[in-house]
Design brief:
The chain has 486 residues and is an alpha/beta fold. The chain has two domains: 11-149, NAD(P)-binding Rossmann-like Domain (Rossmann fold); 182-475, 2-Layer Sandwich (Dihydrodipicolinate Reductase, domain 2). Helices cover 34% and strands 19% of the residues. The chain has helices spanning 21-36, 56-70, 78-85, 101-107, 127-136, 156-167, 185-196, 226-230, 233-251, 260-273, 296-299, 400-404, 414-424, 433-453, 468-475, and strands spanning 11-16, 45-50, 88-92, 115-120, 145-148, 175-177, 209-217, 282-288, 310-315, 327-332, 339-346, 364-370, 374-382, 391-397, 458-461. The longest helix has 21 residues, at 433-453. The radius of gyration is 24 Å and the shape is globular. The protein starts with 10 loop residues before the first strand and ends in an 11-residue tail after the last helix. Bound molecules: NADP nicotinamide-adenine-dinucleotide phosphate. Residues 16-23, 50-52, 93-96, 121-124, 126, 149-151 line the site of NADP nicotinamide-adenine-dinucleotide phosphate. One of its GO terms (molecular function) is glucose-6-phosphate dehydrogenase activity.
């Protein structure tokens, strides 16, 4: 198989917050990989912008160090690094002041042949300042694109405000709200598997699916992000955005075309069809550590925080396709292993022709986002050898690295893909403003109920699968969570 790299048109990309953690760890290493694969036109420029006093040369040195730190050793040559760095520039700018905007205007091309993209890799409180100054200084042309990062608000009110601030200066078609989960290869493959094969879509409904599980488990704790995280919690940090987006892609109706509004219209309908969950369909947890002194409360330096670092919930979608099919979502920090996986658990066959010792089996389609991105379909076959008809489940494994060999190594990571989609002007994998607001409309009453009741989350030991009650959520209905495997 030959990897196809489709070059993009000439662009100028300004990264506000170009010296920050996200830019150094994800955005610039991602762009470098695209550069190495030949996707970045030679005249295109990447312009870092922040308050620090840096020359172009100092910025390039810093980004060189970031590439060395965050990309695998020996995965690039000094020649490639130098050529990439030559396309980098830096402007000292204050998002809230007047300094630097004249210099930026001189540097960024504003003509019909150059794509302009502005990545707001700064705190959301600065989005309005940046949007306004890009507009009033006449830097952004009519086709300019802006990219914004999570968190997109902390409730419906703040999300609406943020949307309206951005829309004061930019049209919705110019706004790219990043959810990096949507940029993952497997997520797009999920759509390819669902809508590109005859096999799955006819079974993708309440008649054949018993339930769906979505697990996003992390082994890390809140670490240095404690102050931010404690005001947010797993619901705001993970469920409202990443898990909700995954749920939408699984549950949505087939869009008429794979185009931005067709896909996002269908996702929006799923969010609107979500029932408010009952109190006893939600389990909140907080990690404790008896061994390393890094329990949640120690990490956020508070004895009385009631913020959840874990959440498990059972959701129902009120429509014909999914009536009666529970969607179980689970996410948490300091869990047993790091994994992100979606599993569609099909119903058992209606009648078994085999004797009862052969057991009852069900097919499970598992979509792994990390690690080892891939899709596995569990099928039941006869256990080989003598001894009668004994059945066994085996995986039909579609792990990309195995199936595609070296080709899989060139697969862009989520940030690379999403940034290139911005340059191409393709919004399919970005959240639309009304989707974000609908997700907050569903989330807000749940969080408000927790705040009102002030209940402590259930403790769970680090390195486990979460509080016991999360298992009970499944057991009480004769189901169980699939194992969390690294
Ligand atoms: P960070 O490390 O704190 O970097 C913030 C950047 O903003 C720095 O380059 C800083 O540089 C610049 N900055 C701050 N105030 C400024 C001002 N008034 N004018 C111009 N530049 C200013 O933050 P980050 O972790 O990179 O996160 C950036 C955004 O991405 C945030 O919205 C965050 O929530 C989001 N995000 C981050 C991650 C991640 O993994 N880091 C993941 C998801 C989302 P100076 O101090 O030199 O101005």
């Amino acid at each position: 198989m030959v990897s196809r790299v489709i070059p993009v048109d000439d662009f100028d990309l300004v990264i506000f917050g170009g010296t920050g953690d996200l830019a150094r760890r994800k955005i610039l290493p991602g762009l470098f990989r695209r550069f190495c694969s030949g996707q970045m036109p030679a005249q295109s420029r990447i312009i870092g912008a922040a308050r620090s006093e840096l020359s172009d040369a100092a910025f390039r040195r810093d980004i060189k160090a970031a590439l060395e730190e965050f990309l695998p050793k020996d995965s690039f040559s000094a020649k490639e690094v130098k050529a990439f760095l030559d396309q980098l520039h830096y402007v000292r700018i204050d998002a809230t002041g007047t300094e630097g905007w004249g210099a930026l205007k001189k540097l960024v091309r504003n003509d019909k042949d150059t794509i302009q993209a502005f990545y707001f890799s700064v705190a959301p409180s600065l989005f309005g300042d940046l949007a306004e100054r890009l507009h009033t200084n006449k830097i952004a042309g009519p086709g300019a694109r802006i990219v914004v990062e999570k968190p997109f608000g902390r409730d419906l009110g703040s999300a609406k405000k943020l949307n309206s601030t951005l829309r004061d200066h930019f049209d919705e078609s110019q706004i790219y709200r990043i959810d990096h989960y949507l940029g993952k290869e497997t997520v797009q493959n999920l759509m390819a598997v669902r809508f590109g094969n005859m096999l799955f879509e006819p079974l993708w409904n309440a008649q054949y699916v018993d339930h769906v599980q979505i697990t996003v488990a992390e082994t890390v704790g809140v670490g240095g992000r404690g102050a931010y995280y404690d005001k947010s919690g797993a619901m705001r940090d993970m469920v409202q955005n990443h898990l909700m987006q995954l749920l939408c892609l699984i549950a949505m109706e087939p869009p008429s075309h794979f185009d931005p509004d067709a896909v996002r219209d269908e996702k929006l309908k799923v969010i609107r069809a979500l029932d408010p969950p009952k109190r006893d369909d939600i389990v909140r947890g907080q990690y404790e550590s008896a061994t390393d002194g890094k329990g949640y409360l120690e990490e956020v330096e508070s004895n009385d925080s009631i913020t959840e670092s874990f959440i498990a919930m059972k959701l129902a979608i009120s429509n014909w396709r999914w009536a009666g099919v529970p969607f179980y979502l689970r996410t948490g920090k300091r869990m047993k292993a790091r994994t992100s996986e979606i599993s569609i658990v099909f119903k058992e066959t209606p009648h078994s022709i085999f004797d009862k010792d052969s057991g009852r089996h069900r097919n499970i389609l598992s979509i792994r986002l990390q690690p080892n991105e891939g899709i596995t379909l569990g099928v039941t076959i006869k256990e080989p050898g003598p001894g009668g008809m004994r059945l066994v489940d085996v995986p039909l494994d579609m792990t990309f690295a195995d199936a595609l060999g070296p080709e899989a190594e060139g697969v862009p990571d989520a940030y690379e893909r999403l940034i290139m989609d911005v340059i191409r002007g393709n919004q399919t994998l970005f959240m639309r403003g009304d989707e974000v607001e609908a997700a907050w409309s569903w989330t807000d009453p749940i969080i408000e109920d927790w705040t009102r009741r002030g209940e402590r989350p259930k403790p769970y030991d680090v390195g486990t699968t979460g509080p016991e009650d999360a298992a009970v959520l499944m057991h009480r209905e004769g189901r169980r969570w699939l194992d969390i495997k690294a």
